Description:
oxidoreductase activity, acting on the CH-OH group of donors, NAD or NADP as acceptor; methyltransferase activity; nucleic acid binding; binds NADPH dihydro-nicotinamide-adenine-dinucleotide phosphate; NAD(P)-bd_dom_sf; alpha/beta; 12 helices; about 350 residues; single chain; Epimerase_deHydtase
Amino acid sequence: MPTVPQGGKVLVSGANGYIAMWTVKILLERGYRVRGIVRSADKGKFMSDYFAKLGYAEAFEFAIVEDIVKEGAFDEVVKDVDAIEHMASPFHFNVSDPQGKSLKFFKPAIQGTVGILKSAVKNAARVKRIVITSSCASVLTPGLSVPKVFSENDWNEASPKEVEELGSKSPGASIYRASKTLAEKAAWEFYNQHKSQVHWDLAVINPPFVFGPAIHDVTSLKSLNTSLQSWYDVVVSDSPKTKEVLLQTIAWVDVRDTALAHVLAIEKEAAGGERIITTSGSSIWQEWIDAANSLNPNPLPSHKLAVGLPEISRGEKVYLISYDKSKEERLLGIKFNTIVETTKATLEDFARRGW
Ligand code: NDP
């Protein structure tokens, strides 16, 4: 499958999100034109203004798709693009699920994903590659008691089963994980059924927890995206932290590296047909607190940073979940940010925002 031409136009759905804004930025910096899909004009305007200030007024445009679940929602916007990055999907754990079917999550996650692929089958004569943002949530098995290294061969079969069994009593995290698993499976199934009809192929990026500075429209701590909110709560806020939380395994990746992975996935021919885990590595929360406290001067001087239980880091650390990085190294070869680099950039970002 030919790769996307330099200077080609890339469609990015969920373009105003945390990871997507960085992806759009890197695409523009590398000479692509971008059409960002957002749900409302104000979200598009934020993006246009942001990228115009960086000199990309001509190269960036936005289009509104109010409801990604609607049949044919993407039919028009895919028409003249060379590649698609499908990133729109709900990501939070506060799901109230009165019907017990997780529809608020499953519909946009699954139908949104299959919908953009359907539109690409019908209308996207120029598209060479479609990249879908899945997650390590569709790879891992939750609730392990012994460490395991996961690879792209693994699927999270447990969360969809759990949600099916528990219905409205399912924990929010399980619903989110199930939504990612089902959406990714649906994407591969759809692609495999239609690949003889299309001139594009599919690549999937599977990141674990994503941290790092934000450039999307966040006006308050309350509107932080889910992963960065968790990071703030542990590393910055003075809320009490239990030993259990501080020891929790956090496989992670910097948001800028995640975005780069999405861009490389349209540039590297060998990424076609692959799901690719993109991770910096595994950690426990205490290591993030230690990293923050190792920075001198403190990049967020308005706060006395959390200290946690530093003795935890001096003992042997157990990472219950880690990921095989060999496919990413072979196909994309990203030089990932370290915990200290990501921590510094994130705290500096919070300081700029006056948090
Ligand atoms: P954000 O919440 O910042 O962005 C989510 C994007 O998806 C926003 O543009 C949002 O639009 C859009 N979206 C959410 N729900 C819907 C819906 N029902 N219909 C249409 N659009 C919707 O999250 P992230 O940037 O963190 O996540 C982006 C992608 O990356 C998601 O697919 C997520 O599952 C995946 N991911 C994230 C990880 C992380 O740690 N952050 C880890 C692994 C995967 P709007 O602003 O209008 O709500």
